[in-house]
Amino acid sequence: MGKIRLLPEALASQVAAGEVVERPASVVKELVENSIDAGASNIEVLIQRGGIALIRVSDDGCGMNRDDALMSLERNATSKIRTKDDLAAIHTLGFRGEAIPSIASVSKFRLTTREADSLTGTEITINGGKVINVKDCGEPPGTQIEVRSLFYNLPARRKFLRTENTEYSHLEQVIKTQAIAHENIRFSLVRGERLAFQLPATSSLRERIGGLVGNDLASRLLEIKPHEHKGVRIRGLIGPPGMGRSDRRQQLSFLNGRPVEAAIITRALREGYHTALMKGQYPVTFLFIETDPEAVDVNVHPAKREVRFHDGFGVQDAIIGAVQGTLRERMTRPVSGVGLTGARTPEPSPDVVQENLIPEAEQRSLRNDWGEISERKETPKVSEAPALFTATERQRVETEAPVETQQGTVTDSTPLDPALAPEEEEKPKPEDYRLMGVLGKLYVLLESKEGLVLMDQHAAHERVLFEEMKERMEHEEVPSQRLLSPIMVELTPRDFDLIEKNLDTLSKLGLSAEPFGGSTLKIDSLPTFLKSDDPESFLQDVIEEIRSSSDRMSKLRLGEDMIATTVCRHAVKANDPLHNAELQKLLENLLVCDMPYCCPHGRPTLIQISYGELERKFGRQT
Any idea what the CATH number is for the domain that residue 113 is in? Predict the structure, then answer.
């Protein structure tokens, strides 16, 4: 007798269910996606005991007749595709024909459905994949599916489920994600006897996000103007510089309305924000990617979470361009209620000399690390800046409470957020701010027409030095130091090919290397700013950056982490006393930067406290 046999149909269904139904959240995802594909405008989800005892999904979609309802319970039965050509251009969320029979095989399943023009509906009851009953019913148009006692017939799978609260949190996240992707659909979630949330249909993505995560956060998000690159269209809302999270829970991406995960998207967001976020933090993003369905493969995994792009670098470049464009545009606009912007100030006249902010000892150390620093011009010592307001203006400011923008008041824990600036306002200049003093020998106090501005002198100087060094690296070769004895590094063939293709770029970075037989690389010199005792670790970091880089990403960026570390050592520190003229020049240099609102490590350089916030703190305004 042969060893290979066909599995019983019931067992094969339960095995296949393991790929689609991992936990209650997987059931909700598949059922809600079917409701969306059915054209529903109202989707209600009821769960008990974290979805383990009961999941009920009701919609007002197109419904099904009896034949279609019975056919939907067969494996590989679907209304979404017909031919192999359809598989190459998926327009729906579901298409595999596996979800319903898989769910029915591991639960006590009940389906009721009715088409709008039918007098009666159909009710089908299934226990563990076995049809128990089929009959007529009097249901409203649409479809309702009940899933009870999930995994009751698979004890091994059931015991691996987490606590009710954990399963509920996963389930809730699935519904919220679908609600963000389809703001034109009304969603409601009932947990036991309590309404968890109810979201009316809306045409505004910001309003839908506000209903889920709060209006305070939603109002601070920056809107991406529709951006297109190589047929890839990007839109959505992203967090301003400095708004980061310790995990990716609020880093959501949607491809043609489908929530997706892809390493390319994660890398593109990291590149787009670059120095606008602290290391180890993730941006808050609600990113919508639209592309030709034929340019993407969503048939990678039964759960349809992962996707593959035919032109991954094209998608990556589109995301980078959209994110960087949004951040830079917001950085250069005047801000109502905030004051400072990243507007470029006029260049000083040739006969004006700028005072150097770095002490002579620090200059020598920086020369050792980076070569000769660029010549700086010096401004003459200036007296205290004149008051910003006339007596009449001051009286108006004191008697009229400032009008808060939709963005909300920026508090002392929020970096400057240029999000809702009127385009017609004149760009502020450094002389628009009155220097009042220094707090704690670190925080420079400035007065603007909108309130109090605090500047971190260390973070601000880091940004100024970082952009100066970065500009030099873009146009000149980085100083390097020749090693007394070359370092031999053994690489994998793939990594060796990457390095070999980018030897010219590495040379500009001050890293001189050449092949030394096989996959061995001989390193003759290293950049002077590299203080690491482990050059092999630095080389591995460079390889990782090259692997994730795209056409838009300048490969000269590979050494920027080391530059950021270098400027951190040489920037003015807390307790370093600076004269008024030096502080004024630091502000001017900061406003010239491309990204003036955060240091190279992502920490804020400028913080705004409006008059409205101050008046509330002192009880002058409720």
Answer: 3.30.565.10
Q: How many C-beta neighbours within 10 Å does residue 74 have?
A: 11
**Cα–Cα distance, 445 to 434 (Å, whole number):** 9
Distance CA 570, CA 2 (A): 76
Handedness of CA 443, 380, 595, 343 (dihedral sign): positive
Q: What is the pLDDT of residues 313-344, one digit of tens each?
A: 899 999 999 998 888 776 543 333 333 333 33
Domain boundary among 310, 331, 352: 331
| C-alpha to C-alpha distances, 353 to 230, 385, 586, nearest whole angstrom | 47, 19, 14
Contacts of 568 (CB under 8 A, 6+ apart): 462, 600, 601
Per-chain mean pLDDT for the chain:
78
Please identify, among 530, 546, 569, the residue that sits at the C-terminal boundary of a domain: 569
pLDDT reading at 426 higher than 70: no
Q: Is 329 exposed, middle or buried (0-12, 13-18, 19+ CB in 10 A)?
A: middle
Domain count of the fold of the chain? 4
Q: Which helix (H) or strand (E) holds 171?
A: helix 164-181
Q: Where are the beta strands (DSSP E) in 138-231?
A: 142-148, 186-191, 194-199, 222-229
The CA distance from 206 to 229, in Å, is: 24
Q: Find the range with the poorest average confidence among 250-264, 447-461, 506-520.
A: 506-520
How open is the CA angle 594-597-598, to the nearest 5 degrees? 95
Helix (H) or strand (E) holding 220: helix 215-220
3-state secondary structure of 495: helix
Q: What is the pTM of this model?
A: 0.71
Residue 549: per-residue pLDDT: 62
Given a cut of 70, whether residue 350 has pLDDT beyond it is no
The answer to whether residue 410 is domain-embedded is: yes
User: Does the CA dihedral 51-52-54-55 come out positive or negative?
Assistant: positive
Q: CA nearest 39: which of 59, 57, 61? A: 61
CATH number of domain containing 319: 3.30.230.10
